[in-house]
Amino acid sequence: MMTRRFALKLPALFQFQSAAGNDRQYWLSVLQRVAEPVLTALSQGKLRERMPVECVKGQETDRRNYTYLEALGRLLTGIAPWLENGPADGAEGKLRARYADLARASLAHAVNPASPDFMNFNKGAQPVVDSAFLAQAVIRAPKELWEKLPAQTKAQLVQALQSSRTIQPGFNNWLLFSAMVEAFFCRVGADWDKMRVDYAIRQHEQWFKGDGIYGDGPQFHWDYYNSFVIQPMLLEILEVTAANKTWDNFRAPMLQRAQRYAAIQERLISPEGTFPAVGRSLTYRFGAFQLLALMALRKQLPAGVAPEQVRPAMTAVIRRLMEAPGTFDANGWLTIGFCGHQPFMGETYISTGSLYLCAAGLLPLGLPLADPFWSGAAKKWTSQRVYSGEDVRADHAG
Predict the structure, then answer these.
(1) CB count, 10 Å around CB of 176?
(2) CATH code for residues 21-386
(3) pLDDT in tens, 229-248
């Protein structure tokens, strides 16, 4: 078992921590701190051996069935755009190339039945969730996480994701997990089930509640699942399957709803970098802002929301949560909590692997350094402007 402290495990971390005031370098330090334990262990076939499984007391045996695929799928879905489009040279380029290699080696272990880290894709209900996050990661980085895979790993990955089809998703956001797996098959040229995609899209259209918000199933839930799952997966499923004209009428309104929800998310960030601790799965931390991050990555931020204000707003949130004492254990693994180590905040379905969905907030690292998101001078975000007394244009429903 690992016993040395986490800081000793991060090669060249100082390169990204030392530049005070450089938001991108700070984000890279967070990426490295989150990714290093998972990808290092799994690339060596030692994730089960090294990763602790923190969860609600009494759930340990059950969550061990799922936590490892959770860690892999959720981490990769967040860092995939950076793996795909990050710099090719310099210190960041070297780090990106290293993590791309580790990610491919990790995938090979995850889908190889002979590996000690072969993962569960079809037993119980949970694997359909993280099959989808893994599929989403490959869709977000097709060159690095698909084209560069060995033929055997490609075949085993397809087989593993196909096996998740035995799981019947719940009548809620889980419909999108099955649809995302099918979108992966569409993306890589495998046979895909259009009915699963159609069902998920049309059902979510029925669940739209207005003003940028979908219900999680028939009922409205005040939580961040519109950002954790619903809106990002709807947009990306529609994009991947664009050659199929069946869903053309959904694309424009679903994009407009996502833009409205992104505007709401930006307004939720207080001047101090906090946001309402409401709803389920708060232990995913700043992953709650995946939709805002995705709209920045796609250059589809709503009118009136500049990338130069989103960057400092999200940086403030990330710092607020990730610098809280107890966020990482002594060996660098994430602990259950929202702002620090808060085990009571973990629902029965939460375990160590679940927490790596925080990485979904790092999507803008897939933008080049010259993009205004990174290169533009920081601007006040909306709540800073309002609370400083600035005369801000009134908000209105989308």
Answers:
(1) 28
(2) 1.50.10
(3) 999 999 999 999 999 999 99
Report the SS3 class of residue 226: helix
**Residue pLDDT, tens place only, 306-352:** 999 999 999 999 999 999 999 999 999 999 999 999 999 999 999 99
Question: Which of 193, 194, 235 has its CA nearest to residue 363?
Answer: 235
Question: Is the CB of residue 78 less than 8 Å from the CB of residue 358?
Answer: yes
Amino acid at 253: P
Cα–Cα distance, 83 to 45 (Å, whole number)? 21
Q: Where are the domains of the chain?
A: 21-386
Eight-state DSSP code of residue 217: S
User: What is the tens place of the pLDDT at every residue in 196-226?
Assistant: 999 999 999 999 999 999 999 999 999 999 9
Please give the distance of CA 322 from its chain centroid, rounded to a whole number: 16
Q: What is the pLDDT of residue 21?
A: 64
CB burial string 58-72: b at 16+ within 10 A, e below: ebeebbbebbbbbbb
Q: What is the CA radius of gyration of the chain?
A: 20
How far apart, in whole angstroms, are the C-alpha atoms of residue 134 and residue 148? 16
d(CA 190, CA 177): 17
